[in-house]
Design goal:
The complex is a heterodimer. Chain A is mostly helical. Chain A has 2 domains: 1-69; 70-131. Chain A has helices at 3-6, 9-34, 41-68, 71-102, 111-123. In chain A, α4 (71-102) crosses α5. Chain A starts with a helix and ends in an 8-residue tail after the last helix. The relative contact order of chain A is 0.10. The mean pLDDT of chain A is 94. Chain B has 5 helices and no strands. Chain B is 56% helix and 0% strand. Chain B has helices at residues 5-11, 16-23, 27-34, 42-52, 56-59. Chain B is globular. The longest helix of chain B has 11 residues, at 42-52. The chains are: A mainly alpha, B mainly alpha. The interface between A and B is medium-sized, with 12 and 16 residues. Chain A: Keywords: Membrane, Transmembrane, Transmembrane helix. Chain A: The chain crosses the membrane at residues 14-32, 44-65, 77-98, 110-127.
Chain lengths: 131, 68
């Protein structure tokens, strides 16, 4: 089976965008934490917009992929996306309650995005039907 | 949704890939239709019916129509 069949143009664009944003996301966080002592005020806020922008672009790429694939893949991706989002809400909320009432370690808010994608990877093999 | 898609495809000697290209959907979509993991939209059902020259109900079982 050819690469064109396995990875149609919409999938290739999604993979490329995801890889670029993931690399930029990690590098920008490393750069911000490394230069945190030098960064201050508006410059720090502007620097923080880089990883935030990566998340926004990655989500946009996911929604664009959903719009460009056929109806079966769109419905499948949408189901996985919704269930993963529900799981991320549940985990993040549960952790928040644990922080407040059980004094567990603090979980940064931005981790909810990583939790969402972990949940997406976990649920995907089990969601193979749109019914 | 129960259907005769696999039989109709086999009668014409088409692979799932052949049918997917004719319908403009992925091979996974054809497989999902044949294995009843996906109920087609009305648009896709009409496209399939037009491709095989049959009515939609001749391909997809209508669970809401009382048995004769």
């Amino acid at each position: 089976m050819s690469v064109a069949v396995l990875f149609p143009p919409a999938s290739r664009r999604y993979i490329l965008t995801s890889v670029v944003t993931a690399v930029l996301y990690v590098l920008s966080i490393k750069a911000i934490s490394w230069g945190q002592s030098q960064l201050d005020g508006p410059l720090l806020w502007a620097a923080i917009l880089v990883p935030v922008g990566c998340i926004a672009v990655q989500l946009w790429a996911t929604l664009r992929l959903m719009a460009q694939v056929d109806e079966f893949m769109r419905a499948l991706l949408a189901r996985r996306f919704i269930i993963a989002a529900c799981l991320a809400f549940i985990v993040a909320s549960a952790w928040g309650f644990l922080e407040t009432f059980a004094r567990v370690d603090h979980l940064p808010g931005y981790m909810v995005y990583a939790i969402f994608w972990v949940a997406f990877c976990i649920v995907s093999p089990f969601i193979r039907s749109t019914r | 949704m129960r259907n005769t898609l696999k039989v109709l495809r086999a009668e014409r000697g088409w692979t799932q890939n052949d049918l997917s290209e004719r319908l403009g959907v992925s091979r996974q979509a054809v497989n999902a239709l044949e294995t009843e993991k996906h109920d087609p939209s009305l648009d896709l059902a009409y496209r399939i019916a037009a491709l095989f020259g049959l009515s939609v109900e001749a391909i997809f079982h209508n669970p809401h129509r009382p048995a004769a």
